[in-house]
Every structure is written in C-alpha cells, then in structure tokens.
Write a structure and sequence with these properties.
By secondary structure, the chain is α/β, with parallel strands linked by helices. It is built from three helices and seven strands; from the N terminus they run E-H-E-H-E-E-E-E-H-E.
Length: 146
C-alpha cells in the first residue's frame, strides 16, 4: 500500500524555517538510502531548492541535481517541477500545490503550509489519497523537529 505523510508546518512560518524543515526531511530520507524526487511548484523554486541543498549543513552533504541537467548516473536526490521531464524515485517530496497527474504508488511526502486556501487544497488531497487506498499519516512539525 502506498504511503503519504503530510508534514504540517506551524501557520506562521518564515522562509528560513520552511527551508530548514525541507532540508531536514530531505536529509532524513537520504539517510535511509532512498532515492528522492523533490517536486517543486516551478523551475524558479527548483533553483532555490538546488541552492538550499548546496548550502545545507557541511556534515550532511546531499548529492543532488536538477532533473534537466546532463548526468551520467542520477544522484540520490533529483529536483523537478511539473513542466520538466518526469522521472520516478522511491520517495516523492511534493512541494508543488497539486499532485502529479500520473502519481505512482510510492512514499509521498507533502508540506501542509500557507494560507487557508493552500491548507484546504492539502485536505482535499488527503481525502483523495485515502479514497484511493493510500496509507495517510500526519506529522505536525514544531520548532526543532522534522
């Protein structure tokens, strides 16, 4: 059964704290030895995530690349966006507002954040995943956790 984990951010979270949560979630996934596809809203966000992963903690290097880069062997973390070439990984960390139209069975990670409209969208996605027999979990994030 595919599994989806919704990471619920506090309502008032600034960009730096949001990025810190994302970085810790990616680090935890990499530590498990799983391939990860980080799906961003658009290419601009993908470039910001690329920069974030390069600037992470020195003791936890995250091998990654943008999906449109010429690569011999794909690194454990690929960063993509809806208009880019699509690929698969064991874990899909979806930062985009919508779910991919061809969502494969996988381990899916999502952030619940933003205004009431974005939170309502994530609630609808929760209901859709449950209706399609996904095992759905909620993980509330507090300062210092991931």
């Amino acid at each position: 059964m595919p599994e989806a984990t919704f990471y619920s951010l506090p309502e008032a979270v600034d960009t730096a704290l949001r990025q810190s949560y994302i970085l810790r979630i990616v680090e935890k996934t990499q530590a498990q030895g799983l391939s990860l596809l980080l799906r961003c809203q658009d290419r601009d966000e993908a470039l910001r995530m690329d920069e974030l992963l390069w600037g992470g903690r020195p003791e936890s290097f995250i091998a990654h690349a943008l999906v449109d880069e010429e690569l011999g062997k794909a690194p454990p973390v690929l960063i993509t966006w809806p208009q880019a070439r699509q690929t698969r990984a064991a874990v899909l960390f979806n930062l985009a507002e919508d779910l991919p139209p061809d969502l494969p069975p996988c381990r899916l990670l999502l952030l619940v954040e933003g205004d009431a409209t974005m939170r309502a969208r994530r609630r609808e996605q929760w209901k859709w995943l449950k209706a399609h027999h996904w095992h759905v979990l909620n993980h509330p994030l507090k300062a210092g956790t991931a």
